[in-house]
Write a structure and sequence with these properties.
two-stranded parallel ribbon; 2 helices; globular; 2 strands
């Protein structure tokens, strides 16, 4: 039985983003966002994230929020386990 890779990803930052320094900064931020949420990504996916021209102006939190919104919309994130209610303990009186 072939083993399914956890997930794979690629980052695309075109020249419209800006110079090499700006493109590399955007790639580093996106790589960190994906790394921070890798446990939430369902196994077997291969992702390509394309940075748009406004990405260099965005903060880390704005990029993360946008990436998570799109990942949820695509359904690639694992479903959160339903929380189990805590059973009341029997008190001895």
């Amino acid at each position: 039985m072939p083993q399914v890779a956890e997930f794979g990803f690629g980052l695309v930052t075109g020249r419209k983003i800006g110079g090499a320094v700006q493109r590399n900064r955007v790639r580093r931020l996106l790589r960190e966002i994906i790394r921070a949420h890798r446990a939430e990504i369902q196994p077997g996916w291969h992702l390509v994230t394309i940075a748009r021209w406004r990405a260099p102006e965005a903060s880390y939190h704005e990029l993360e929020s946008d990436w998570l919104h799109l990942a949820k919309k695509l359904g690639i994130l694992r479903k959160a386990a339903p929380s189990q209610p805590i059973a009341p303990t029997a008190s001895a009186t």
